[in-house]
Specification:
The structure is a single chain. The chain is of the alpha/beta class. It has 27 helices and 20 strands. It has a six-stranded parallel beta sheet with strand order 8-7-9-10-6-11. A six-stranded parallel beta sheet has the order 14-19-18-15-17-16, with helices on both faces. A five-stranded mixed beta sheet has the order 1-2-3-4-5, sandwiched between helices. Helix 16 packs antiparallel against helix 23. The longest helix has 21 residues. It is globular, with a radius of gyration of 27 Å. The relative contact order is 0.08.
């Protein structure tokens, strides 16, 4: 079934034929967004007649009420009026009515009533009830109310924005079929997993699920967790605003009914992390972080401890646990969550957060896969995938089979000479925006402070309404000298642009009216219209390419990649040029032998990165039969710019200097 089709209707003898027709139509028209409902989703309205009617929602079309029983025209009319009256109440609740008006002002132009018969053709039905273009935005706003995809009406408005920046910023968000399924479908399993590309709305869906759980039971205990401190801080700030926006009347009872914090925490404060709380709740000895400990160790030991508790003495710590950024955690963490949560564990993760993620693991036991990225321009996303996996280069870092390419949203076309073309379907956020002449991704072979300021000025000149907090500057390299560079950059921005600067690696939060400057560790969960990524050179390590991919996709208008050294840039520029012109990635598929080598390399990388850096080095020392001078070699490695988990370069360095340090 197409990811844009959603059916919320229980089948019966009257409606099963029309539902089948819509499902068939959606299979043939996967880019046509359609919802079938009988009452507003996420609300408590219900109607006696809803078993005999269907309401069809589709952007750019009228809201179509279909009567399935011609004998009951009078009751059908009452059903339509009651439904519209309730829609008006929802519009009033979320303050849409002040902008779109009362039903008498839009009903005759946006509402349609029709009858179903066996000869109904879905394409003809939709064409018959197509909206006048001037009512597109009001129609979409009404759909958003009916499916619970509430937009901030003060921000999006009803007028068609004039500039590119404003059009994308004021795009009306509508959940697609898979997103809607996650929110409203009842899943039988205890752990419900959703995975998708960056920018597919996973965190937003978790917030909607949190709201639903919080108001359903006033006695429930919920822990919302993630790995990253910056993301947990962001969530702590977002949730009160989100609850207020969604008109949740219940007050948030922090650290009593709702906990929002990172997964580890501190032994001194039980509420500072999920692990901290569980240690206090079950009397587990708390293990502090050091180079020998890892998530795998602490969660395994915690689960072992809890498993020893007899059933008669066992208590659930929480009713629900919500986890964001699934890919940051080992499997044992989710086993622990299932053990301590009474009802459900909801998990969201990035299906492509790691370019070297095991494909089998990525899709294992996942209930819903999201492959439509609504944040990032498809051209930027394609380039980020390509540079992350080394697709433009002779030696690829990763390769997927056709089924997995489809899972992450690509269509695969094969040509002669092992040439493959990878394309993506368009997404709603950009479908009505003329962007062909506007580059969403720019590469520059210069990363001086003056070049960065020039980029900012260029953004200002093209987008008159741009503000400081619309831009993020991310330094990709992990070395001490980046902070000297940042100091120079901050000073230059202050003097020449006149903007305030927020050092994200210190504040851990984005701030209004300040340009965001950070390393990659404090960007998860954040997005910006413009992202400027800065690096000395394009490295070939998996960790670096993964960071590069992730950071480039944090923009929803435009990403810049500023590189000091030119080595390897020309092939990337050539690949990007083709993406912009032809809307596809052109790549030579690896041979079977090359695929086998790639897979073997990935297995080693995943094994190395599942342990601490200390263990990683000790394993290499064992391989090289080095028993003396380990500490001195480790100190020497820390003074180099070698990536901490770059096995090849680490071994090469040790072999070159080991005799000196061992002596």
């Amino acid at each position: 079934m197409g990811t844009l089709f959603y059916n919320h209707i229980t089948e019966n003898d009257l409606n099963k034929e029309i539902i089948k027709k819509f499902a068939s139509f959606s299979e043939k028209n996967p880019n046509q967004q359609i919802y079938l409902i009988t009452s507003p989703l996420g609300e408590k309205y219900s109607y006696e007649y809803e078993k005999k009617a269907i309401v069809v929602l589709s952007p750019k079309h009228k809201i179509i009420f279909l009567n399935l029983d011609k004998a009951d025209e009078e009751f059908f009319a009452e059903y339509c009026e009651d439904f519209i009256e309730d829609l008006n109440s929802i519009s009033d609740k979320f303050e849409y009515k002040n902008r779109i008006g009362r039903p008498r002002e839009w009903k005759k132009n946006i509402i349609a009533r029709d009858c179903f018969n066996d000869g109904v053709d879905i394409e003809s039905l939709l064409q018959k009830h197509r909206l006048d273009k001037s009512y597109y935005r009001i129609g979409e706003l009404l759909i958003s109310l009916l499916i619970g995809s509430i937009n901030d009406i003060e921000k999006v408005g009803i007028e068609i924005p004039e500039t590119l920046l404003e059009r994308v910023k004021k795009n009306i968000i509508l959940f697609d079929g898979d997103q809607t399924r996650f929110i409203y479908k009842k899943f039988p399993k205890k752990t419900v997993s959703i995975q998708g590309l960056s920018g597919t709305g996973k965190t937003e869906l978790l917030l909607h699920k949190l709201k639903e759980l919080y108001i359903a039971d006033e006695n429930s205990k919920i822990f919302f967790t993630c790995h990253n401190i910056a993301l947990s801080n962001s969530l702590q700030e977002r949730i009160p605003h989100f609850f207020n926006f969604m008109k949740v009347e219940k007050q948030i009872e922090w650290n009593s009914r709702l906990w929002v914090n990172r997964a580890w925490g501190s032994g001194k404060d039980k509420n500072s992390g999920l692990y901290s709380y569980l240690c206090d709740f079950y009397g587990i000895p708390f293990l502090r972080w050091n180079s020998y400990t890892s998530y795998n160790i602490i969660f395994s030991k915690a689960l072992e401890y809890i498993d020893k508790i007899q059933d008669k003495d066992f208590e659930y710590a929480f009713d629900y646990i919500l986890v964001d950024e699934r890919q940051d955690f080992p499997d044992v963490f989710f086993a622990l969550c299932e053990k301590v949560a009474k009802h459900k564990v909801y998990v969201a993760g990035d299906i492509f957060q790691d370019i070297y993620e095991s494909v089998d693991k990525s899709v294992l036991n996942v209930d819903i896969v999201l492959n439509r990225c609504y944040r990032t321009d498809p051209r930027t996303l394609m380039f980020a995938h390509a540079i992350g996996m080394g697709l433009f280069e002779e030696k690829k870092l990763n390769w997927f089979d056709d089924a997995y390419w489809a899972t992450i949203g690509y269509n695969v076309e094969r040509l002669k000479g092992r040439e493959v073309r990878l394309t993506r379907s368009p997404v709603r956020r950009f479908e009505d925006v003329e962007v062909d002449d506007f580059p969403s991704m720019i590469i520059q072979n210069s990363a001086k402070v003056s070049n960065v300021v020039e980029v900012i000025r260029n953004i200002q000149s093209q987008h008159a309404t741009v503000e400081a907090h619309d831009i993020a500057i991310i330094i990709l390299d992990d070395k001490k000298s980046i902070y000297e560079y940042i100091d120079l950059l901050v000073d230059k921005i202050h003097k020449e642009i006149g903007w305030k600067v927020n050092r994200g690696y210190e504040s851990k939060n984005s701030q209004r009216d300040s340009i965001y400057i950070t390393n990659p560790n404090n960007v998860k969960g954040l997005e910006f219209p413009f992202v400027i990524c800065i690096t000395d050179r394009l490295q070939n390590t998996y960790r670096y390419r993964n960071i590069l991919y992730t950071m480039l996709t944090r923009s929803f208008i435009q990403s810049y990649l500023l590189v000091t050294e030119s080595a390897g840039l020309s092939v990337q520029e050539k690949g990007l040029k083709l993406i912009n012109e032809k809307k596809y990635i052109k790549v030579i598929e690896p041979t079977q032998e090359e695929k086998t080598q790639i897979h073997a390399k990935l297995v080693t990388v995943r094994k190395d990165e599942s342990i601490s850096y200390k263990e990683f080095l000790n394993n290499i020392f064992k391989e090289l039969n080095i028993t003396k001078g380990r500490k001195r070699l480790e100190e020497a490695l820390n003074t180099t710019e070698i990536d901490k988990f770059d096995r090849d370069k680490t071994i090469e360095f040790i072999n070159r200097v080991k005799e000196f340090y061992i002596k």
